[in-house]
Amino acid sequence: MLAQIKNAQARRKEEVALPSSEILFSIAQILKDKGFVEGVEKKTRKAGRAELKSLNLRLKYIDGAGAISGIKLVSKPSRRIYAGKDDLRPVREGFGISIVSTSRGLMAGDDARRAGIGGEIICEVW
């Protein structure tokens, strides 16, 4: 998902269609709430007997440049990165966010710090 968003912004696309899942929808909602994406929409279409669910993101541009200038995947399947509440630091001196998987679901890093919980750092966006 993160690579598709990055590539779509490099090509100046207005929308990105992604396969839908709950975790991807949660990440997209966090990006929307923090102002990196304009909108998030779930869509369902029929393909024969099956229903295919997709997630459409409307990308945000500021003065012709993408609102997302960089994305870094922190935790990988081969190496999980966990941080306690005291170890969650601001990303790019406060100009970015981290997305953290906590016991209360996915949250932005600053929200998790305020709630006093840590978790697995999924990615950083700036």
Summarize the structure in words:
- The chain is an alpha+beta fold.
- It folds into 2 domains: 1-67, Ribosomal Protein S8, Chain: A, domain 1; 70-126, 2-Layer Sandwich (Dna Ligase, domain 1), CATH 3.30.1490.
- The protein is 22% helix and 41% strand.
- The protein has 3 helices and 10 strands.
- The protein has helices at 2-10, 22-33, 109-115; strands spanning 15-19, 37-47, 50-59, 61-62, 65-66, 71-73, 82-83, 97-102, 105-108, 119-125.
- The strands form 3 sheets. Strands 6, 7, 8, 9 and 10 form a 5-stranded antiparallel β-sheet that branches. It has a 3-stranded antiparallel β-sheet with strand order 1-3-2.
- The model has no long low-confidence stretch (mean pLDDT 95).
Any idea of the CATH class of the largest domain? Alpha Beta
User: Beta-sheet strand percentage?
Assistant: 35-45%
Helical content (DSSP H or I, runs of 4+): 10-25%
Overall average pLDDT: 95
pLDDT < 50 stretches: none
> How many domain modules?
2
Rg (C-alpha, Å): 15 Å
Q: What is the number of E strands?
A: 10
CATH fold field value of the largest domain = Ribosomal Protein S8, Chain: A, domain 1
How many individual helices? 3
Order of helices and strands: HEHEEEEEEEEHE
Distance between the termini: 16 Å
Shape-level CATH architecture of the largest domain:
2-Layer Sandwich
Give the helix/strand class: alpha+beta
Specify the overall morphology.
globular
Q: How does the major sheet shape up?
A: 5 strands, antiparallel
